[in-house]
Amino acid sequence: MIELITFDAAGTLIDHSWDPAGIVLEAAGAAGLEVEPVAARETYESILSKTSNERAQLELRGDPAEIRAHWRRGVSEWLIKMGEDAQHSREIHEYAERATLSPNGSMWRLFPDVEAALELAAGAEVVLGVLSNWDRSLHVILNNLGIAKSFDFAIASLEFGHEKPDPEIFREAERRAGSSAGGSVHIGDDWADDVEGATGAGWRAIHLNRAGGPIHSLTAAVEEALR
Predict the structure, then answer these.
(1) pTM of the entire structure?
(2) How many degrees, rounded to 5, is the angle at CA 19 between CA 206 and CA 217?
(3) What's the CA gap between 139 and 142, in Å, rounded?
(4) Most buried by CB count within 10 Å: which residue of 95, 106, 139, 183?
């Protein structure tokens, strides 16, 4: 008996154009700065990589002000390395934050089949959740896209402290749903994180392959989950 269905976010529910270096370059252009694009991109991506552990710790602590300050420090470091004045960091960070988290932004979009698939899942009267390797902005984005209320819970890996395919994130979903591994199904597009992660936790897994696999629509994936 199916008790719980969880969904991956990016690539499963959400189509996106996430490109943090590209956003910062766009923000710098809007601020009137001219930077060499290849070097600017490589420099910002290097800063993101170098500070990833710090960012993960801040996500676990969950203080929005600390997280915001972390991103702004990264922008300041990037500006200095590019030979620009760090005083532009606030302007660039605020531009990037609007592009990423504004309800009117175009960065995040629902796939066309999501609403019908969630209606089908809701009709089955099972617990529904989201399991995503994401930061705490996941909750804002789900809300902006109008689907947050479709789920009983959403777990963002950086906020929780474990990411797929670690079985602990699946165990946490079971705890929140009051479900068993044998009654749980996960739908996702990534073979390692979603399929191997879920099956490694004793769940059923459904691989959504939007490029043309056997199950290439979310509606079909939900139908398979409910069988």
Answers:
(1) 0.93
(2) 25
(3) 5
(4) 95
